[in-house]
Amino acid sequence: MQKDFLQGDESIFLNDIALDYNFIPSVLLHREGQQAYIGNCIKLLEQNKNGRNLFIFGDPGIGKTLATRYVLKQVEENSDEIMPVYINCWKHDTSYKILLEICNLINYKFIQYKATDQLMKDIKSILNKRSIVLCLDEIDKLQDFSILYYFLEDIFKRSLIFITNDKNWINIIDARLKSRLYANNVEFKPYDYNEILDILKQRIEYAFVKNVFEKNCIEEVAKKTHELKDVRAGIFLLKESGDIAESRSSKKITLEDVKRAINKLAEFKIKNDLNEGQNKILELVKRYSGKPIKDIYNYYNKDISYRTFRRRLEELKDAKLITLEERSIGKMGKVAYAYYGLNKKLVEF
After folding, report:
1. The CATH number of the domain where 247 resides is what?
2. Per residue in 72-86, pLDDT tens?
């Protein structure tokens, strides 16, 4: 019986990094056509031409970012003439923040007290020494479009790639900008069941020791993943099933482990429905539940204003993840408090 249980520092995981959402496999399955098209649009830069601009769209969790980053990685490893730049607009949602990130990537340090226009003027000569592929993921979160005008006007050889879940985003930008971009559409459609099964089996091969999943387990994960139409959910289930099995020192992942992991999918959904900033604030509210909002804000790394912090709290409240309450404190007036989850004592009346 002892041989069925993990001993000492034994693990059923070979490489759990392969179960990270950002892990890029050496072979990306079932997106070969889209990857080839993206690669060909970028290859024009090697012919001393501008590359094509691309508008990549499709549902969440179906490989848009992974496929694009795979191509950018290949470009970085195989070309000295093209510099790929990948930026997520959740993290960098203004042109100024994007330029700061580009300055960081090119090791340009003279950024103090410079406005957006001046910063672009300073670095464009550096950028124009090579061809540039600028990929803006979650482009629908970008608050201003100055960066697009800068690249169209000031960068000689470039390819702009936009990724979003919102297929209508391209229609909301100014008509003049849209016509100048002349972006080619690349639609990603959901994986079918067999494609999902292939992808999960590939991740298992990277992440786990051989034959760790008992009969029907992988099919159960694939079935749930196909139902949700989000491969990230399947990767979550693989990792969670493994953690559950290891928690009982088992060398095998059973169907019961998978079913317990499926019951935790609400946790995955919350995490992936929120952006990074909202997740960070939610974790702070969870840790300091019941404290005044201003105190919680003081624990936050203040890269946002208090007004923005309050707006994000309201978003979490609307999502029914936290409760906000105002109390009268004598001459101090009203003080706002935040609670993790739905505090029934506060909301039932």
Report:
1. 1.10.8.60
2. 999 999 999 999 999
